[in-house]
Design a protein that fits this description.
The complex is a heterodimer of chains A (163) and B (448).
Chain A lengths: L2 H11 L9 H12 L4 H11 L3 H8 L13 E6 L2 H4 L3 H12 L5 E2 L5 E6 L11 E3 L2 E3 L7 H9 L10
Parallel strand pairs in A: 1-3
Antiparallel strand pairs in A: 1-4, 2-3, 4-5
Helix pairs in contact in A: 1-2, 1-3, 2-3, 3-4
Chain B lengths: L4 H4 L17 H6 L4 H6 L4 H11 L11 H7 L7 E6 L8 H8 L1 H15 L3 E6 L4 H16 L16 E5 L9 H8 L23 E5 H5 L1 H7 L1 H5 L9 E8 L5 E6 L4 H8 L9 E5 L19 H6 L8 E6 L4 H15 L5 H19 L4 H14 L7 H15 L1 H10 L28
Parallel strand pairs in B: 1-2, 1-4, 2-3, 5-8
Antiparallel strand pairs in B: 5-6, 7-8
Helix pairs in contact in B: 4-5, 6-7, 15-16, 15-18, 16-17, 16-18, 17-18, 18-19
The chains are: A alpha+beta (163), B alpha/beta (448).
The complex binds flavin mononucleotide, iron/sulfur cluster (SF4) and FE2/S2 (inorganic) cluster.
Chain lengths: 163, 448
C-alpha cells in the first residue's frame, strides 16, 4: 500500500470522533489512487481504517460513485432524470453510445472512456447535464458530443497521474 | 457554470441572494455585513437564539417544512452534541442548495457557527452530495478563510468556545438525503434509514444528540438574527414565513433558481420569473415541489407557494423544485421516468418499497410500450395505495404519490396507450426517445 494513501486516510480519520466515519473519504482516496475499488484498493482502505475488508466492500457497494469494476480513463455520465429527459437527455445518450460504439453502462473498446447514465445531478435548470470526470457540462447539445469525445481521447485523467 | 438569469441581476427583495454574481471571498462578504449576526449572537444565550428562531417561525427548507425553532428546542442535553447540515440535494428537480453554496458560501458557514454556538456543539458536519465536487471545494475554501479570521478553530471572541466545521462528501445515493439514512452514512454504515425513535435529537451523528437541518435553513439563520425573528416572520404568510429558494426546470423559458417570498404564487414563479412555456406551447401540468409530489394542473397556477397553500391544493411544497410540463409531453413517459428513479434509489430495506417501486416502474414500462391493459391501470393505482404509508421512510410514498396523480389527472393518455398499442406523441416530442429502464447494472469489465 502506498504511504500517501495511508496518510491521507489518517488525515481523514482525524476529522471524526469515530474512525468508521472516515470510510467514504477513505474509499474516495483509494479510488483516486487505484482508478477503481479493486480488491487491492479495498484492502488498503481496510488497513488504513483498521476495519475488515468485507465491511469496506459492503459500504462501497451501496453508493453509485464507487466503481467496483475497472473503468476507462475518463468517465462520462449523462443525467437522464426527469428535467433533463424532458429536454432531450435520452437522445444525447444515444448519440454518445453511437459515437463510442458501446452500450451504457460500458467502456469503449480502447478502454479510454466509460459511459453511463445517472440520476439527477442537481443541474436541472441548465440541462441537459453531462458530468465529465466529475465536472459538470451544462446545456449539453448533440453537437457537443463528438468534440468532447475527441478531447477526451487525446488526454488522460489528471487525478490518475499519481496512481 | 453558465450565467443563469438569477446570476445576472440583483434581486432587492431577496434575503439570501439579493446580489448578482457571487460573494465567495470573506472580505467581500464582511464588507456587506457578513459575520455581524455571529458577533451579535455571541452576546446572546442559547435560549435567546432559539427564541429568535421560534419567533421567526421559519419552516425547514429540506422538504418536510418542520418548524426550525421548535426542532432546535427539542435537542437533547449532552456533553457532545453535533450539528449536521443536509446538503445531499438529490430530489429530482432540486438545485437550490448548490446555488447558495456557489454564490454565498459564507452565509451558510456563518449560520453553522451561530448554530454551533447555540448548542455549544462539539462539531458540525456538512453532508454534501458526492457529485458536488466544486461546491465541496468552495466550502472548504470558505472554512479556511473563516479559520484564518478566527471564527473557526480558535475561541470565538469573548468566549472560550471553539467552533469546528467539516465537509463530509457523500458518494451517490439519493436516500442519504433522508435524515436517518444520512446519519447512517455519516456514521460509516450503508446509507439506509433507521426506525424512529431514537430521533436524531437524541441519537444521531456518532450516536450523540444531533441537530440536523437543510443547507438553506441554516443559511437563513444569520438573516433571522440580523433582522430579528419577528421582522422575518413579517415576510411571507403567517404559517410560511420568509423567502424560499425555488428551482425552476423543465419547459419554462427561463429556468434557474429564484428566491421568492412565500406569499407569492406559482403563477408569479412560472410566468412572472420563468416567462411561462415557450411560444406556441401551453402549460400541461407542473410539479410543485420535487418529483415525489403529486402534480398540479394549469387551473391551479394561482396556488400560493406557502406550505399550507400547496397542501390545500392537494400536493406538497417539498424541496421547492418546480418542474414545468408543456402540452407535448407524454404523461405515461413522465410517470415512468419518475418511478424508475425511485425504483433505482430504494434502499431495499422494506418490502413494500423495494418490491412496490419495481412493480410500479415495470407496469409503467409496459404501458409506455403499449403492451399494458386497462386493468393494469387500476392495478397500478392499487399498488400505489398499498405502498403509500407502509414503508419505513417516505421513499415509497415518493414513488406512489406522483404516479397516482399522473394517472388520476391523465388517465385518458394511459388508456390511449392501451388502445393504440403505442404512444401517439410525435417523434420530436419531449422524451420521445425514452431509454430502457435504468437498472442498477454493474459496469461490465473493460475489454483488454
Ligand atoms: C427520501 C428522502 C430524501 C430527502 N432528501 C433530502 C435532501 O436531499 N436534502 C434535505 O435537506 N432534506 C432531505 N430530506 C428531508 C430530511 O429527512 C430532513 O427532513 C431535512 O433535511 C431536515 O432539514 P430541515 O428541517 O431544515 O428542513 C429527504 C427526506 C426523504 C424522506
Ligand atoms: S421506504 Fe424504501 S428507501 Fe425507505 S427504508 Fe424502506 S426500502 Fe429503504
Ligand atoms: S434532472 Fe438532470 S440534473 Fe436534475
Amino acid at each position: 500500500m502506498s504511504d500517501t494513501l495511508y496518510d491521507e486516510i489518517q488525515r481523514e480519520i482525524a476529522k471524526y470522533p469515530d474512525r468508521r466515519s472516515a470510510i467514504l473519504p477513505a474509499l474516495r482516496h483509494a479510488q483516486e489512487h487505484y482508478g477503481w475499488l479493486s480488491p487491492e484498493a479495498l484492502e488498503a482502505v481496510a488497513d488504513g481504517l483498521d476495519l475488515p475488508p468485507a465491511r469496506c466492500l459492503a459500504v462501497a457497494s451501496f453508493y453509485d460513485m464507487f466503481f467496483l469494476q475497472p473503468v476507462g480513463e475518463h468517465v462520462v455520465e449523462v443525467c437522464t432524470n426527469l428535467s433533463c429527459a424532458m429536454i432531450g437527455a435520452d437522445r444525447l445518450l444515444r448519440e454518445f453510445e453511437r459515437e463510442l460504439d458501446v452500450k451504457a453502462p460500458g467502456t469503449s473498446a480502447d478502454g479510454k472512456i466509460t459511459l453511463r447514465c445517472v440520476e439527477c445531478m442537481g443541474g436541472c435548470g441548465w440541462g441537459p447535464v453531462v458530468s465529465v470526470d466529475e465536472d459538470y457540462e451544462e446545456h449539453f447539445q448533440i453537437e457537443d458530443v463528438a468534440p468532447l469525445l475527441e478531447r477526451l481521447r487525446s488526454t488522460s485523467r489528471p487525478s490518475e497521474s499519481h496512481a | 457554470m453558465p450565467e443563469a438569469p438569477t446570476f445576472a441581476q440583483p434581486d432587492p427583495s431577496a434575503l439570501l441572494l439579493p446580489f448578482a454574481g457571487s460573494r465567495r471571498e470573506i472580505a467581500e462578504y464582511e464588507a456587506n455585513g457578513g459575520y455581524d449576526s455571529l458577533r451579535k449572537s455571541l452576546g446572546m444565550t442559547s435560549e435567546q437564539i432559539v427564541d429568535e428562531m421560534i419567533a421567526s417561525n421559519i419552516r425547514g427548507r429540506g422538504g418536510a417544512g418542520f418548524p426550525a425553532g421548535k426542532k432546535a428546542s427539542f435537542l437533547a442535553q449532552g456533553v457532545d452534541r453535533y450539528l449536521v447540515v443536509n446538503g445531499d440535494e438529490s430530489e429530482p428537480g432540486t438545485f437550490k442548495d448548490r446555488e447558495i453554496i456557489l454564490r454565498n458560501p459564507h452565509m451558510l458557514i456563518e449560520g453553522i457557527i451561530i448554530y454551533l454556538w447555540m448548542i455549544r456543539g462539539a462539531g458540525a458536519y456538512i453532508y454534501i452530495r458526492g457529485e458536488y465536487a466544486k461546491e465541496a471545494a468552495i466550502l472548504e475554501g470558505a472554512i479556511a478563510q473563516a479559520r484564518e479570521k478566527g471564527y473557526i478553530g480558535s475561541p470565538l471572541p469573548g468566549t472560550d468556545y471553539v467552533a469546528n466545521v467539516y465537509v463530509h462528501r457523500g458518494a451517490g445515493a439519493y436516500i442519504c438525503g433522508e435524515e436517518t439514512a444520512l446519519l447512517s452514512s455519516l456514521n460509516g454504515e450503508r446509507g439506509q434509514p433507521t426506525a424512529k425513535p431514537p430521533f436524531p435529537a437524541v441519537s444521531g451523528a456518532f450516536k450523540k444528540p444531533t441537530l440536523l437541518n437543510n443547507v438553506e435553513t441554516v443559511a437563513t439563520v444569520p438573516i433571522i438574527l440580523g433582522m430579528g425573528g419577528a421582522a422575518y416572520a413579517g415576510v411571507g404568510t403567517e404559517q410560511s414565513t420568509g423567502t424560499k429558494m425555488f428551482s425552476l426546470s423543465g419547459h419554462a423559458r427561463h429556468t434557474g433558481n429564484y428566491e421568492m417570498p412565500l406569499s407569492a404564487t406559482y403563477r408569479d414563479l412560472i410566468e412572472g420569473k420563468g416567462g411561462g412555456v415557450p411560444e406556441g406551447r401551453t402549460l400541461k401540468a407542473f410539479v410543485p415541489g420535487g418529483s415525489s409530489m403529486p402534480i398540479l394542473m394549469p387551473n391551479q397556477l394561482d396556488t400560493g407557494l406557502a406550505f399550507e397553500a400547496v397542501v390545500a391544493a392537494g400536493s406538497m411544497a417539498g424541496s421547492g423544485a418546480v418542474i414545468v410540463v408543456d402540452d407535448r409531453t407524454c404523461m405515461v413517459r413522465f410517470a415512468l421516468r419518475t418511478a424508475e428513479f425511485y425504483m433505482h434509489e430504494s434502499c431495499g430495506k422494506c418490502t413494500p418499497c423495494r418490491e412496490g417501486t419495481r412493480w410500479i416502474a415495470e407496469l409503467l414500462r409496459k404501458q409506455e410500450m403499449g403492451l399494458g391493459t386497462l386493468e393494469e391501470i387500476d392495478l397500478l393505482l392499487d399498488i400505489c395505495n398499498r405502498v403509500e404509508g407502509n414503508c419505513l421512510c417516505v421513499l415509497g410514498d415518493a414513488c406512489a404519490m406522483p404516479v397516482r396523480s399522473h394517472i388520476n389527472n391523465f388517465r385518458h393518455e394511459f388508456e390511449e396507450h392501451c388502445r393504440l398499442g403505442r404512444c401517439s406523441c410525435p417523434d420530436d416530442a419531449p422524451m420521445s426517445e425514452l431509454y430502457p429502464p435504468l437498472l442498477k447494472a454493474p459496469l461490465p469489465m473493460v475489454a483488454h
